[in-house]
Amino acid sequence: MFLLSTNAKLEKRNGQQYLIAGLSLAPHGIGDYQVCPDATAGCKSACVLWFTGRTVMPMTRNAMKRRKSLFFENRELFLDQLRHDIAKHIRLANMAKVKTAVRLNVASDLDWSQFVTEFPQVSFYDYTKVKSRTMDDTWPDNHQLTYSLNERSRWQTTRAILDRGKNVAAVFSTRYHPQSGRIDALPESYRLNNREYQVIDGDVHDVRLQELDGSGVIVGLRFKGSLKRRALAMKNGFCLSV
After folding, report:
1. Which is nearest to 174 in space by CA: 122, 240, 109, 111?
2. What pTM does this model have?
3. To pair with 195 at 20 to 30 A between CA atoms, which of 19, 63, 94, 222?
């Protein structure tokens, strides 16, 4: 079983090229094991990693479930295979003369801080709802985290994260319907209490590295899903109204 995605993509941003691969486990609430310690009702109901795109296909979902079970039931075998996959990914990137990037929490929010130190040449990046990780000065430099705003986030904490130069991802109610060509613009800024913060378009690419996004910014994401699910996400506070 390969753990990293086999459809690694080449992303070019700001004159740099990255070969990207990700680790997709079945998300929180699916199966017996939980992978998101700070999951909220809002994020579980709106999870794009289970209700949209290829993840609605049984083959994809079953593979995510198998990886998740292996992680909890045979951790040693899982990590050995993951090391093998990352080493192969590094070789491919070196052959292409591009940078190596890996997202280990495509649909999870696990603590990989010890594991990533084994690969200092790799740029790891993830979203997280665990505030303490984004405030931890000892967190590995090669694992960049973007805090995910949710209905339980306090503006004081969110501002503290931004003012430390870290980035915060926020889902907006901005219309997203590519099938009809309707993808509305995100707001240029967002006010937290009495302070404005720049909003960048996080849908342009998914490589959440500060050398591409900047620092101390809000990474705006459009809500992906049906109008009914968007209305629910707005009602429970997970999705910001614009």
Report:
1. 240
2. 0.90
3. 222
Measured CA distances, 45 to 49, 131, 138, 156 (Å): 11, 21, 33, 25
Length of the chain measured in residues:
242
pLDDT at position 142 over 90: yes
Q: What is the 8-class DSSP label of residue 179?
A: G
Q: Which strands, in side-by-side order, build the sheet including 218-222?
A: 9-13, 16-22, 99-103, 123-128, 143-148, 168-172, 218-222, 195-201, 189-192
**179 band by pLDDT with thresholds 50, 70 and 90:** confident
Residue type (1 letter), 217:
V
Q: What is the DSSP string of 106-119?
A: SS-----TTGGGG-
Instruction: Using alpha carbons, select from 127, 86, 89 the residue that is nearest to residue 108.
Output: 127
What whole-number distance in Å separates Cα of residue 210 and Cα of residue 143? 11
Collapsing DSSP to helix, strand or coil, 200 comes out as: strand
* Cβ density class 169-205: b for 16+ within 10 Å, e for less: bbbbbbebeeeeeeeeebeeebebeeeebebbbbbee
The Cα–Cα gap between 61 and 48 comes to 13
Residue 11 and residue 22: Cα distance in Å, rounded?
Answer: 13
Say how many Å lie between the first and final Cα of the chain, rounded: 43
Return d(Cα 103, Cα 118) in angstroms, integer: 15
The helix/strand count (H/E) of the chain reads as 8, 11
pLDDT at 47: 64
